[in-house]
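User: Assemble these into one structure.

Assistant: Restating your components, then the assembled model:
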Amino acid sequence: MEKSTDITKRGLAQMLKGGVIMDVVTAEHAKIAENAGAVAVMALERVPADIRAQGGVARMSDPALIKTIMDEVTIPVMAKVRIGHFVEAQILESIGVDYIDESEVLTPADNKHHINKNLYKIPFVCGAQDLGEALRRIAEGASMIRTKGEAGTGNVVEAVIHMRKIMDEVRKLNNMDKTELMAEAKNLGAPYNLVVEIAETGKLPVVNFAAGGIATPADAALMMQLGAEGVFVGSGIFKSENPQKMAQAIVEAAANYDNPDVLAKISEGLGKAMYGLELSVIEEKDRLSVRGW
Amino acid sequence: MKMRIGVLALQGSFAEHMESLHAAGAIPVPVKFPEQLDGIDALIIPGGESTTMRKLLNKYNAGIRIIDLAGKGFPVYGTCAGMIALAKHVGHSEQTILGLMDITVQRNAFGRQRESFEENLDIPYLGQEPFRAVFIRAPLIKETGNGVTILARLKDGRVVAAEQGNLLVSSFHPELTGDLRMHQYFLAKVKNT
């Protein structure tokens, strides 16, 4: 019997495909998410919209809160650690969460290095703006990738930019002359062996979800038509007027992302989506998506 | 003529099952709605989250149609969450989903993700070569009724694959390893019905 292999770590993400992972801050939220059909929940103290509004240093959540959420639902429970904060990761490993998100939504603890995720029994998901960043994280041991988007804005534009960029760079590698791959690895800032692997297979070696700014069923379907294999919804559910309805509708949208007739039906009468932020009002220093190296 | 095998494509590892079926010489057909069950020879219910699948199966009425077809001998193979979907009894008084096969299963029977594992299983039905089985937050078969044949056990004897008439289930994920023998076994079963 071998535990915590690449196949089991990447495999859990494969089981989440086509699904929606929802941010929850209480056990009650977690139950609503599970009943709506979420494939997993992200347990945290504040959703990104509140972290953005309140400012200050955002850290790993109280383990007691994460444990109440783990006790409440039977679906996988994820939790966030700060970029580079390997002790927060050790703590989450100790309490036994199902996935760890090394997340730019929290305040980075290391401005040069990410966690060596290969050392952990629990799989990690990491954000990426482009293919080079995705491959650096995979080389460090990430078993799942997500776009960063711009969390807590309810504005999907950054997630679209990141997803398009990643898919474009994968397609480009897939069509490249083999001789050019070393120069391209240097250009991407990515490990050569992973660049060669993608050139051969034409796809990322791990599951790739969309995250950051998804607020409606149409947003979820948009990301999946662009190539996402599932979606994270942070503030978009519990900052909407009717979280239960919105949660169910986004779950259905992820399953039927390529069916406009179904999407039209489920988009009706959901109440107000979360209040969104135009990206131009967010100063460069307040952007979360630029965190990560 | 190649067999057309449906794969329930609401959520989970359906793309991996479709690749395995293609490699095993069948035509995979994604299924989300009841009418898509017409014109196929059998169905695979993939791994994923069973609570999500239950929700979506009920929503689009594909569940009722699968129950109806399976009652008439239509072959169905469920892996992991798919096995939970087929079971008549789910432990800890959780709701059943399709309730077709005379087995009692326990969800997340090994614990959380850090208990997920790979193990070589001896499955005589698949030949001498051991089968690399991948268990991810996997369920177990706790009890089997009359007419259920046990196909595979862990080294400690716990039951992880079984069949009953036209129904086949496994706790593990043959769609993740590239070993096609479970899919071939199912296709042979479909051929004989």
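DSSP finds five helices and twelve strands in chain B.
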